[in-house]
């Protein structure tokens, strides 16, 4: 069978992948070319080293390995903002973004016009908003960081948008902190060298930069938000929910960390080919256990979580697969 597939690819014969509904027979589109019978899909990620890059890379590997007529390639971008702009404009077929960005772009906000054409392809685990300082620093509360250098990640990063939103809700968006816009990797280096006092990051675990920060000489620790602040955050953005990071997730973390968080999602537009969306959803769901062995950080990226946390409606291909499986009625 494999030799036949290879021969067919060489001859340019379009292969079909059987599904429980109908066969995939995709001819190609403006931003998804079919080369030798293989649909070539670029998937917007973010900067390397971040959780979202690992999420996209592991999903791309699984999809490509399980589907001989689909090849997914991660594309480095600045993050969810760039991804949604390019997806909405038809320049990028798939991109990952946080709920913060999806909410802003799907519904519209300020200068951002609503993008009702956006659709959810597949979801992720919930992230956790974290405030990190060096273990030996004098800072105990977020108020102690007033006037200090605080990185909230690079502009265009999904976490940066969320933190900016929450700072505004607290009335601390006008110079309360000396904000720095560094990538997670840059923030890690700056925290190690003392060039910043704290990193605020919203990401799923395990995060590469956070892991290295907690492993640095002297270690690191989390600062919790007050209960009042967490309640304010939950009222500010409907897509947020309480989040708990278990003790032991990172080196030296001896207690559970209580915060808030939100999911990410792979986002497409409504004209993304239904048969391809169906196969992608099917692959990620049916091979969930294998996916977690490729990258442990995708634990919780289930069909159920995709359904429960969607902001943009499910893509018809994803929805059809979920209905066939009985996940939704």
TrEMBL record:
Gene3D superfamilies: Periplasmic binding protein-like II. Residues 1-23 form the signal peptide. SUPFAM superfamilies: Periplasmic binding protein-like II. InterPro entries: TRAP_TAXI. Keywords: Receptor, Signal. Pfam families: NMT1_3. This is TRAP transporter solute receptor, TAXI family. The lineage of its organism: Bacteria, Thermotogati, Synergistota, Synergistia, Synergistales.
């Amino acid at each position: 069978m494999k030799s036949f597939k290879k021969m067919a690819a060489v001859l340019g014969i379009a292969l079909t992948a059987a599904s429980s509904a109908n066969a995939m027979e995709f001819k190609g589109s403006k931003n998804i070319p079919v080369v030798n019978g293989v649909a070539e899909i670029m998937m917007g990620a973010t900067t390397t080293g971040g959780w979202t890059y690992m999420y996209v890379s592991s999903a791309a590997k699984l999809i490509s390995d399980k589907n001989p007529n689909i090849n997914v390639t991660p594309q480095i971008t600045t993050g969810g903002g760039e991804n949604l702009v390019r997806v909405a404009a038809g320049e990028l077929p798939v991109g990952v973004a946080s709920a913060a960005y999806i909410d802003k772009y799907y519904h519209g906000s300020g200068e951002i016009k609503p993008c009702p054409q956006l659709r959810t392809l597949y979801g992720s685990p919930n992230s956790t908003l974290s405030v990190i300082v060096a273990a030996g620093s004098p800072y105990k509360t977020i108020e102690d960081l007033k006037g200090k250098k605080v990185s909230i990640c690079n502009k265009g990063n999904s976490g940066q948008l969320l933190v900016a939103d929450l700072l505004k809700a607290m009335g601390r968006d006008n110079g309360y902190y000396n904000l720095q816009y560094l990538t997670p990797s840059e923030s890690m280096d700056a925290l190690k060298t003392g060039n910043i006092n704290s990193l605020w990051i919203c990401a799923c675990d395990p995060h590469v930069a956070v892991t290295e920060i907690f492993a640095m000489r002297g270690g690191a620790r989390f600062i919790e938000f007050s209960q009042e602040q967490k309640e304010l955050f939950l009222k500010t953005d409907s897509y947020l929910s309480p989040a708990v990071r278990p003790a032991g997730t990172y080196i030296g973390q001896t207690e559970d960390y209580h915060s808030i968080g939100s999911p990410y999602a792979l986002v497409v537009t409504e004209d993304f080919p239904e048969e391809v969306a169906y196969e992608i959803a099917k692959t990620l769901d049916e091979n969930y256990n294998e996916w977690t062995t490729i990258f442990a950080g995708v634990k919780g990226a289930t069909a159920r979580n995709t359904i429960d946390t969607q902001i943009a409606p499910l893509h018809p291909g994803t929805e059809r697969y979920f209905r066939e499986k009985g996940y939704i009625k």
